[in-house]
Design goal:
Blueprint (H helix, E strand, L loop, with lengths): L15 E3 L15 E3 L49 H23 L15 E2 L9 H5 L5 E3 L5 E3 L9 H5 L5 E2 L5 H9 L13 E6 L3 H10 L8 E6 L7 H9 L4 E6 L13 H18 L7 E5 L8 H15 L8
Parallel strand pairs: 7-8, 7-9, 9-10
Antiparallel strand pairs: 1-2, 3-6, 4-5
This protein binds iron/sulfur cluster (2 copies).
Length: 336
């Protein structure tokens, strides 16, 4: 016999679980789970409630950002967020109320909320070239893009967290921010110096998520940890903003390997953008298939998960990757 005390299950759990179309339990990647109730009744294409994580509790990262939900401007507190008693609920409500005040003030100034607090950039979509493929609407973790009656993406700036996952997803490369775009990162990649084959120095490009992996690199530096000099670092807003064209650009330029450092994904995810890190992993698996077809070692493209507190792993990750590239030998596309 199991007795559940009041508050151990949120009222929002009293409905039927709904998965996105074409997704079933057990799939490697489930973009969101929604419970059909009539508690919030929001106007999102994914449904009227906030996505849940487990047992009907809102999908929110309890380690890095409690109170946040995947619906911008809605903060969960008390036994809606996790099982807790009255004193903890009072404390929790204070935290959530402070988050809500911050959200109102930031939104009033046209700025983004957590985690890119203060960002004033907005996504710009060159709609004339849109193929209505729906990748952006389906992959946005925060439901910030609906569709109009002609299936064009309908962007809602006040919901947007500026993660740029839609930019990474768009196959037409027509989504960009004024200060972050496919071209901007592509130009950085194309300007990385690649040593010639005769120099016997491998070159690896490391795309680093700014939320955990980049601070981990900083921590490694502050602690004077030594690692291979053959890597060049390109920071990203989120690993999920990675557009595959950057990987193709790097490899066709003769770079020997591409490594992505992102947050932990899966059940205990720590991705600040909920699904960005997992989406990056899925996109990379598609590159691996293409590399195999081109008879290029798929191990030249790799993803690693890291948190700030694991900064001591940085040298081992980078050194091991570069050693592997040395074993593969120079990228055959070098010099073309
Ligand atoms: S930047 Fe992120 S939150 Fe904003 S629309 Fe794109 S995927 Fe959604
Ligand atoms: S991903 Fe790009 S092409 Fe596809 S619907 Fe969105 S904007 Fe249009």
């Amino acid at each position: 016999l199991v007795v559940l005390a009041t508050g151990m299950v949120p009222v929002s759990a009293l409905g039927e679980e709904v998965l996105p179309p074409g997704v079933k339990l057990g799939d490697e990647f489930i973009p969101y789970v929604m419970i059909e109730t009539d508690v919030l009744n929001l106007g999102y294409r994914q449904g009227g409630e906030s996505p849940v994580l487990i047992y009907g509790y809102p999908d929110s990262n309890f380690i890095c950002f409690p109170y946040e939900t995947r619906r911008t401007g809605i903060y969960a507190a008390g036994s809606i967020r996790a099982p807790m008693d009255i004193p903890s609920t009072v404390e929790d409500a204070t935290g959530a109320a402070l988050k809500a005040i911050q959200c109102i003030e930031l939104t009033d100034r046209g700025e983004a909320v957590h985690p890119r607090v203060g960002d004033t950039s907005y996504i710009d979509i060159f709609l004339q070239k849109c193929t209505q493929c729906k990748r952006c609407t389906e992959e946005c973790p925060f439901g910030a893009i609906n569709e109009d009656e002609k299936a064009n993406p309908l962007y809602n700036p006040t919901r947007c967290r500026r993660c740029a996952i839609c930019m990474g997803a768009c196959p037409e490369r027509i989504m960009s921010f004024k200060n972050y775009s496919v071209d901007m990162i592509g130009t950085m990649v194309k300007n990385i110096e690649v040593p010639g084959e005769e120099e016997e120095k491998p070159r690896a490009v490391v795309f680093v998520c700014e939320n955990d992996a980049y601070p981990a690199l900083d921590m490694a530096g502050l602690n004077r940890l030594q690692y291979t000099p053959f890597v060049r670092v390109v920071p990203l807003r989120c690993a999920g903003s990675m557009n595959l064209v950057w990987v193709a650009d790097a490899l066709s330029k003769g770079v020997d390997g591409v490594l992505i450092l992102g947050c932990q994904y899966g059940d205990d995810y720590q991705c600040h953008m909920a699904t960005g890190s997992h989406l990056a992993k899925i996109r990379l698996s598609k590159v691996a298939e293409t590399l195999d077809r081109l008879k290029l070692e798929s191990g030249r493209v790799q993803m690693e998960q890291i948190s700030i507190s694991e900064y001591y792993k940085i040298p081992e990750i980078l050194d091991t990757f570069v050693e592997k590239l040395k074993e593969f030998g120079p990228n055959p596309y070098k010099g073309f």
